[in-house]
Specification:
8-stranded parallel β-barrel; single chain; two-stranded parallel sheet; 18 strands; glycosidase; GH; 6-phospho-beta-glucosidase activity; globular; Glyco_hydro_1_AS; alpha/beta; about 475 residues; TIM Barrel; hydrolase; about 40% helix
Length: about 475
């Protein structure tokens, strides 16, 4: 029998804990046609204003701002940016490889050497400072040519293209990268009514949306499983994980019907977690497919692939929570997901509900369900920063992070959740995926660029830069 008093004083997280930050190529890299890179689905998304949906163009239009084209220009500033990460003491940096830098059209016979060399240089620079790369293979940036030529992930051929891409980068970087993620926020396919970001899909008027998204999900889950299988063949020491949005949802009241609706809301997330971790379509998956009256086809051998290709760990993004009820509620939107307004929570300038305790709850929910190591690879606060006298005084960001990290530590020390690390989203200012804005800033470092694409691109540490540096130095003791 276990004995001991429950205590609230917190120890440090484990010694080998990955403190760091996270970005995505299409929001940070820029240089959208340099180095042999092809067009991605992000490259035809126009910029927008606060609260306005981004427009998707079939082709690049003259005189239109496409935020991913230049973004924060990491492509030309990577040495400076990595030096800033090292100054903060980063143990890891979560980043993505742009598929279109390796295979510009997705179905090319041979990879682009210039693109491969760019990431070689980035990884070498990270290792120079002892920073571990954590690399996402698919982060909202699939080749546009695959949408036009093959109808995107509706077509099973994309499984082969994705696995070929994964094998090329695994072979190339097998001695430089150990930690990998397959698809970023893969469950966005079910959460977002327009899953362009995640899968290059715009539903047609003549097709059954439920069937399409289940079939697309199956193809991506197959690609993920095969990626895990091939990765472990290339280097058995690889640690390959999946990555989910975790839109924590509470029942609005204690009515039993609200509890049922809350469970149903989370099916969209657990559908993908179950297949990645358990290697099969569970009762949860079947329940969701039946609920939306959707169907998909599997080929012989698919079940064996899913069973063999389970992930080593589960990564997730956490920004907010929401409530669910059978009564009408005021609706808020956070990171694609929509839900009811919780009157007990504050909100950001973009109406994302701030719920630090929800991070502890989320960690427990996921660890209790899957018993796999977890990794918080996105968390943070988009805000309008006031740049003055060469810096930003962002006490609001420090307060947000301090409260979330405190709850994270409670989950580790008190609740005994196995947590690998924490990477704050947008550690250096980048373009918002949802709106294309630069003014929605997350970073510890201010980048001089505005919503019109103007600015010097000069980097300036914010107050939070020095605060996070101290957090890492003390391994979280200074919270």
């Amino acid at each position: 029998m276990f004995k001991g008093k429950r205590k609230e004083e917190l120890k440090n997280v484990k010694k080998r804990f990955f403190w760091g930050g996270a970005t995505a190529a299409n929001q940070f890299e820029g240089a959208y046609l340099e180095g042999g890179k092809g067009l991605s689905i992000a490259d035809v998304e126009r910029g927008a204003r606060h609260g306005v949906r981004r427009q998707i163009d079939e082709n690049i239009q003259e005189g239109v701002l496409y935020p991913s084209h230049n973004a924060s220009d990491f492509y030309h500033h990577y040495k400076e940016d990595i030096a800033l990460m090292a100054q903060m003491g980063f143990k890891c940096y979560r980043m993505s490889i742009a598929w279109t830098r390796i295979f510009p059209n997705g179905d090319d016979e041979k990879p682009c050497e210039e693109g491969l060399q760019f990431y070689d240089d980035v990884f070498d620079e990270l290792h120079k400072y002892g920073i571990e790369p954590v690399v996402t293979l698919h982060h909202y940036e699939m080749p546009l040519a695959l949408v036009k030529k093959y109808d995107s992930w509706r077509n099973r051929k994309l499984v082969d293209f994705a696995v070929k891409y994964a094998k090329v980068v695994f072979e190339r970087y097998k001695n430089k990268v150990k930690y990998w993620l397959t698809f970023n926020e893969i469950n966005a396919l079910f959460i977002n009514p327009r899953p362009w970001h995640q899968a290059g899909i715009i539903y047609r008027y003549d097709e059954n949306e439920a069937d399409v998204k289940l079939q697309v999900a199956h193809h991506q889950l197959l690609a993920s499983a095969l990626t895990v299988i091939e990765g472990h063949k290339i280097n058995p020491d690889f640690q390959i994980g999946c990555m989910l949005i975790y839109p924590l949802t509470y029942a609005y009241t204690c009515k039993p019907s609200d509890q049922v609706l809350t469970r149903e809301k989370m099916l969209k997330t657990y559908y993908f977690g179950d297949v990645h971790v358990r290697g099969k379509y569970t009762n949860t998956c079947r329940s969701y497919a039946q609920m939306i009256n959707g169907h998909f086809t599997m080929e012989k051998g698919d079940e064996d692939i899913l069973k063999e290709g389970t992930v080593d760990f589960l990564a997730f993004s956490y920004y907010f929570s929401q409530v669910e009820s059978d009564e009408p509620l005021m609706e808020v939107v956070g990171n694609i997901a929509k839900g009811g307004r919780n009157p007990y929570l504050e909100i950001t300038a973009w109406d994302w509900q701030i719920d630090p305790i929800g991070l502890r709850i989320s960690l427990n929910n996921l660890y209790d369900r899957y018993q796999k190591p977890l990794f918080i690879v996105e968390n943070g606060m988009g805000a309008i920063d006031k740049f003055e006298n060469g810096t930003v005084h962002d006490d609001y960001r420090i307060d947000y992070l301090q409260k979330h990290l405190t709850e994270m530590k409670k989950a580790v020390d008190i609740d005994k959740v196995d947590l690998m690390g924490y990477t704050m989203w947008g550690c250096i200012d980048l373009v918002s995926a949802g709106t294309g804005e630069m003014r929605k800033r997350y970073g510890f470092v201010y980048v001089d660029r505005d919503d019109e694409g103007k600015g010097t691109l000069k980097r300036y540490p914010k107050d939070s830069f020095y605060w996070y540096k101290h957090v890492i130095e003390t391994n979280g003791e200074s919270l």
